[in-house]
Amino acid sequence: MRILLVRPRRLDVMTVFGQIVCEPLELEHLLPACRAFGEAQIYDGIVEGRAFTAVLREFRPDVVGITGYLTQEREMRAYARLSRRTCPGCAVVLGGTHAQLNYRRLYWPEVDYVFRGESVEDFSRLLAALDRGERPAGIPGLCAREGAGFREEPYVPCDVDRLPMPDRRGWEERADWYRYLDWPRISTMKTAVSCPFSCDFCYGRGLHGGIYQARRLDLVLDELEEIPGETVFLVDSDFLVDPARVTALLDGLEERRIRKQFICYARADFIAAHPDLTARLCRAGFRAFLVGIEGIRDDRLRAWDKGTSRGTNETCVRILREEGADCVALLLADPAFRREDFRALYRWVRDMGLRYASVQILTPIPPTPFYQRKRGELLSEDLRKWDLNHLLLEPEHMGRRAFLRRYRLLMARLVWLGWRRGAYRFVGPSYLAGVAGKWLRRWRTLA
Ligand code: B12
Ligand code: SF4
């Protein structure tokens, strides 16, 4: 059996400019299962220069597995259509982050299966059934076409300790695409799923049935021993949850003599409450902490159920500064913002001495509680606009244009501030020339 795994192309600011690009970790997790059934390859639309149909004609897959985020929904459908048209007999399977909680949106005529789970063993069961020419039965979270509709099996969160090690054999070839801002050639890995917190607007916490599970540390350390690259981006929604686990991981890194640089997501309250552990993390190679600061007003933080405060956020920034690590401040622009709020956000970043700050527009992601409350007020239904840079709710204190103008101005000022403080030094003439080349290389591939 031949299996083609697809990460859709997306030509937006992030993927075109390439300031943050990660390996297709979700597909690397599936690859070992596919290889057990025959030939398998990844078509990564984020970096791929070959036209998709040319690959389909050459590879003639029996199964096409397509992943994607909500912003890529359109592209997921386009790849499904092209697969159906070029290889009419192939099975088209959709899965991934968006499919997990929004599976019913994906019941398109071109699709045979929507796979809601994370379990690679269950995906293997599907492949086994397809290989035998049988109808798959009893696979948790599988939605299978039946007549004009889809038969849905109940979703059961899997044990993530049973996931196979990702197959990263393609990493080196594409490593020059991968970066997190000033950290080039990053590799990506996940040590836990979902999140134990309950921020009202967050999609990530609903994944894995809303049940947080941290992977066994011996498995995490085994993966870290194998992982390529000098800098590892730990893509847990929140890496710093349990101080005992973090301490055990640091002990493990020392025992196994694993020397890497790390970037991770963290909460401000953890860092503020654990200055000594944070210092040890920094000594062990943790260079940047992506902290959901979200806001600088306590009333807003309370309304979002964030569980932090301005004071906690400031303590966190101070601790990281003292340890010589970067706090990458993740901030939100609320449609309830007044003019002063944009200015206050800039002043806060400036006064806290930060180099990296990113502001995303508060966006109701389906099906979060925030989305359920706001779904009747959305300004668009086009999911391409869910990239957190578009306005999807009516601003309360100014027109839409004025809001977006202020938002873009704030972003530009923050980038300039960061540049003056030594950040974003990867951007130069040769990088910009490369951006243009990479864009041209990809722009005709979705055909
Ligand atoms: C790393 C990351 C990124 C990386 C990209 C990583 C990548 N591989 O493409 C970067 C930083 C570039 C990024 C960008 C964005 N991201 Co992001 N990101 C994440 C993060 C932190 C981890 C994702 C990850 O690597 N998971 C690890 C893999 C192994 O897990 P997985 O994807 O679930 O895959 C498993 C299963 O789903 C399944 N599976 C996956 N695909 C398939 C396919 C098939 C066929 C099958 C059978 C199974 C299957 O098997 C896998 C193994 O178990 C998540 C938060 C989170 N907790 O997940 C947010 C998250 C996925 N991102 C999100 C968003 C909104 C974005 C952006 C749109 C906005 C932004 N500005 O950040 C952009 C859009 C990028 C794009 N390409 O369009 C949302 C997604 C919402 C949604 N409904 O889709 C999340 C959940 C964050 C959040 N809390 O809201 N992101
Ligand atoms: S702490 Fe972060 S990942 Fe966890 S629910 Fe809140 S926003 Fe989501």
Structure description:
The chain is of the alpha/beta class and 447 residues long. The chain folds into two domains: 2-152, 3-Layer(aba) Sandwich (Rossmann fold), CATH 3.40.50; 182-425, Aldolase class I (TIM Barrel), CATH 3.20.20.70. Helix content is 39%, strand content 18%. It has 17 helices and 18 strands. The chain has helices at residues 13-17, 25-35, 52-59, 73-86, 97-102, 120-132, 171-174, 217-226, 243-255, 268-273, 275-283, 298-303, 310-322, 339-351, 369-374, 400-420, 429-443; strands at residues 2-7, 20-21, 39-44, 63-66, 91-95, 113-115, 142-146, 149-152, 179-180, 183-184, 186-189, 192-193, 213-214, 231-234, 261-266, 286-294, 326-333, 356-361. The strands form four sheets. It has a seven-stranded mixed β-sheet with strand order 3-1-4-5-6-7-8, with helices on both faces. It starts with a strand and ends with a helix. The mean pLDDT is 96. Residues 195, 197, 199, 202, 204-205, 237-238, 267, 292 line the site of iron/sulfur cluster (SF4).
Q: What CATH architecture of the largest domain do you see?
A: Alpha-Beta Barrel
Uncertain stretches of 5 or more adjacent residues = none
Number of helices: 17
Mean pLDDT: 96
Task: Using the coordinates shown, work out and report the CATH topology of the largest domain.
Answer: TIM Barrel
- In this structure, how is the largest beta sheet organized? 7 strands, mixed
> What fraction, in percent, of the residue positions are helical?
25-40%
CATH class of the largest domain: Alpha Beta
Could you state the CATH homologous superfamily of the largest domain?
Answer: Aldolase class I
- Strand neighbour order, sheet with most strands: 3-1-4-5-6-7-8
What fraction of the residues are assigned to beta strands by DSSP?
Answer: 15-25%
Query: Structural class of the secondary structure composition?
Result: alpha/beta
- For the record, the count of structural domains works out to 2
Compute the separation of the termini in Å: 24 Å
